[in-house]
Every structure is written in structure tokens, then in C-alpha cells.
TrEMBL record:
Domain of life, source organism: Bacteria
Name used for this protein in its record: Ribonuclease D
SMART domains xref list: 35EXOc, HRDC
Annotated source species: Actinokineospora alba
UniProt record, GO biological process: nucleobase-containing compound metabolic process
PROSITE patterns to which the protein is assigned, alphabetical: HRDC
Biased composition (Pro residues): 300-311
Taxonomy of the source species: Bacteria, Bacillati, Actinomycetota, Actinomycetes, Pseudonocardiales
């Protein structure tokens, strides 16, 4: 069955303090888990803030809250939403911007993560709703500019539908997980997700500029860094997505060509546009500053890595580590398949690589279990994998047979 709008109609947007107070009272008076979702404007704005918060609870209906209109002063919601478990889909995307508003769940159920643990190949919200509940959700505005005001009615329909069936989906997934004997695993995962701290800031984030692999000189990398930082400052100050200020491809081209002056810069394809002509002075100042840096301040073309080298290099240079990793992957693949789990949910690939690269001194079950625990593995993961991993860590490279 196709759902094109909420069954109770699309609610008005909560955009002032009185409406927010009434919404909070109704939500608090409802019963059972609370479906929560947000809409951001990632491709349009620098910030990852929530531009709309969608809430639904049995007995209270659906609410669409505009935090921008009420200056993020949503204190009445904090107590109302503390009443029960939150249900989100792909919670890791929404929890940070909800936390910015002071909204943090005391209990969590993530329907996307539940779908992965239950062994579904596709875990998009619409797919799971159709498979488990028999409804087809009208979609199409997820990548829209949600900072736009006023929000069109069809966008509000889309937003409300995102929470329309979240609680029934949660119940169906809980039953599926219970039948598979995985419910306790899921509860551990949800709690780990709920209590996870913010990710550590990336070191040298400019090195993630798309296409940077084509620039191999320290001076060229300095140009990329200077342009990236100038763009980032401008994007942050204007609250515009960095790629809309200057595409990565333009940064790479300008740093590679290293134009002598503004006129030469303006001959490059992206810089010929009106917007870039106005900013040409900013970009040239960044490039000149990079060109004048002493060698001691240039970025390292091969920065130190705090982790193991890429695993595809292990076989030739580090055969013992390669043997351990191969054995571990074989064993873990068998465990994942037997339990209908994605490999990355059975055990984080980075943790597997690091453990195989630098194994504990002892490879008994208790020591390997503690190593996994220190690396952030949950107890259910340790119970499934530690024994097999302990065996894999004792693997040796195959010796060539004599002629």
C-alpha cells in the first residue's frame, strides 16, 4: 500500500513557544516508544544542525518542530522526550544534531542497525517498511535544502512519513531479532551507540580533498591546504557547504597549476564564473602564502599513520601479519555467514586489522578477549569471535615447498 501523506494529515509546523509547550504536553501524555527523526541541509549548509525535528508517539500524533523559528529554545521537549525509548533510523546521523539541541535519549532502538543485525541485505527505511509492514512510503526529498523557509507541503509530508511507521517497524524488528536469538546483541549495540562520545576531530582534514592523490609534491600539497583552509573559513562564516564555495576539483587544479597571478587563475575552468571572479583575490592570497612557506613548514607528502599500513602491502613485506589477517578473515567470514551478520557488524574491520598487525603477547582466550574489549568490541561480539581470533593469531606464513 502506498502512503503519500500521514494518515492523520500533515500537522502544522511548531514554530513558536506556545505551540512547542502544547506539543510537549501532548507528547508527554502519550504512551510507548517515541519515534524521532531530523532533517538537515548537509549539501547546502556548513553546519550539521537540525532544521526540522519530527516526533511521533502513540496517543499524541505527529509533531514537526522548527528549532530555527524558536531559536533552539526547546526545553519543554527535553522532559517530554525523556519519558520513554526513542526509535530512530540510522541514529548515528541524527543523534549529534539532536544533542546540540539538548535532546539525548535515555534508551534507544535503531531500526537500521536492527535490520543489519537481523540479516536484511537492504536496510533503508522504505525498504524495511515495505518488507515487514507492507507499506510503500512516498520518498524523494531527503537531499533537499531543509534550511529553506517556508517548507513546501510535500516536503512536510515526506518528513512526517519518516516517523509515521517507525514504532510499528521497531516492534516487527524486535520480534525478528528475538526469534533469531539476537535481541540481546542488538540491545548492546543500541546502548553503545547511545553512549558513544563525539568523534575525535580529524587530523589534517584538508587531506581528504577529493583528488589529492594526484598531487605528490610538498609545495603542491601546501597549496591545497591553503585553499582548503581559506574555503573552510569562508564556508563556516557564511554557513554554506564548502563544496558550494569552491569545488574540490578547483582546489586540486589551482594547486597543481600554481597560477602566477589572478589573471592566470581566472583562466582555469571553474574560476571563470562570476562568483569565483569576485573571490579570486582570496584564492590568490592563499596560493601565494603557500608558495612563500619555508621548507620546514611544508606538509609531509607521506604523513605518519597511527595505524598499520594498507593490508594489501602486507603479503610481501609483512608475511606473518598477512598470515594472521588471512586466517582471521576466513574465520570471521564463516562466523558472520553462520549468524547472518554483515562482517562489519560482527567485528569492526579496523579492530581486526590492528589486532592482526600487533597481536597481544599471549594469544589465549582471556587475553584476546581483553584486547577486543579494549578496542571497543561489545560482549556479544567477543563471545562469538574471540576463540576463533585467538587461533587465527597463531597462524604462520605458508612455507614454499622444496623442488
Amino acid at each position: 500500500m502506498l502512503l503519500t501523506e500521514p494518515r492523520e494529515g500533515t500537522p502544522d509546523v511548531v514554530a513558536d513557544a506556545d505551540a512547542l509547550r502544547r506539543a510537549a504536553e501532548r507528547i508527554a501524555a502519550g504512551s510507548g516508544p517515541i519515534a524521532v527523526d531530523t532533517e538537515r541541509a548537509s549539501g547546502y549548509r556548513y553546519s550539521q544542525r537540525a532544521y526540522l525535528v519530527q516526533i511521533r508517539r502513540e496517543g499524541s500524533g505527529t509533531w514537526l518542530v522548527d528549532p530555527v523559528a524558536i531559536n533552539d529554545e526547546i526545553d519543554p521537549l527535553i522532559d517530554a522526550l525523556d519519558a520513554d525509548e526513542w526509535v530512530l533510523h540510522a541514529a548515528s546521523q541524527d543523534l549529534p544534531c539532536l544533542a546540540e539541541l539538548g535532546l539525548r535519549p535515555r534508551k534507544l532502538f535503531d531500526t537500521e542497525l536492527a535490520g543489519r543485525l537481523a540479516g536484511f541485505d537492504r536496510v533503508a527505511l522504505g525498504t524495511l517498511v515495505e518488507l515487514l509492514l507492507g507499506y510503500h512510503l512516498e520518498k524523494g526529498h531527503g537531499a533537499a535544502d531543509w534550511s529553506r523557509r517556508p517548507l513546501p507541503l510535500d516536503w512536510l509530508n515526506y518528513a512526517a512519513l519518516d516517523v509515521e511507521l517507525l514504532v510499528p517497524l521497531r516492534d516487527a524488528l524486535e520480534e525478528e531479532l528475538r526469534n533469531q536469538g539476537k535481541l540481546e546483541w542488538a540491545l548492546e549495540e543500541f546502548e553503545a551507540l547511545r553512549t558513544a562520545g563525539p568523534p575525535a576531530p580529524r587530523k589534517e582534514p584538508w587531506r581528504r580533498t577529493s583528488g589529492i592523490h594526484s598531487v605528490r609534491t610538498a609545495r603542491g600539497l601546501a597549496g591545497i591546504r591553503a585553499l582548503w583552509e581559506a574555503r573552510d573559513t569562508m564556508a563556516r562564516d557564511r554557513d554554506i557547504a564548502p563544496g558550494r564555495v569552491l569545488p574540490d576539483s578547483a582546489i586540486i587544479q589551482a594547486a597543481s597549476v600554481n597560477p602566477a597571478d589572478e589573471q592566470a587563475l581566472l583562466q582555469l575552468p571553474v574560476f571563470k564564473g562570476r562568483a569565483q571572479r569576485r573571490l579570486a583575490g582570496t584564492w590568490m592570497r592563499a596560493l601565494r602564502a603557500a608558495a612563500e612557506l619555508p621548507k620546514s613548514e611544508l606538509p609531509d607528502p607521506s604523513p605518519p599513520n597511527d595505524g598499520p599500513p594498507p593490508a594489501n602491502r602486507w603479503a610481501d613485506k609483512f608475511p606473518e601479519a598477512a598470515a594472521r589477517l588471512s586466517a582471521a578473515r576466513t574465520a570471521l567470514t564463516a562466523i558472520a555467514e553462520a549468524n547472518r551478520l554483515p562482517m562489519e557488524n560482527l567485528l569492526q574491520p579496523d579492530l581486526v586489522r590492528r589486532t592482526c598487525w600487533q597481536p597481544p603477547t599471549e594469544t589465549d582466550l582471556d587475553t584476546v578477549s581483553e584486547t577486543l574489549r579494549a578496542g571497543g568490541a561489545r560482549e556479544w561480539q567477543i563471545g562469538l569471535t574471540a576463540d576463533a581470533l585467538a587461533v587465527a593469531l597463531r597462524a604462520k606464513p605458508a612455507t614454499a615447498s622444496a623442488d
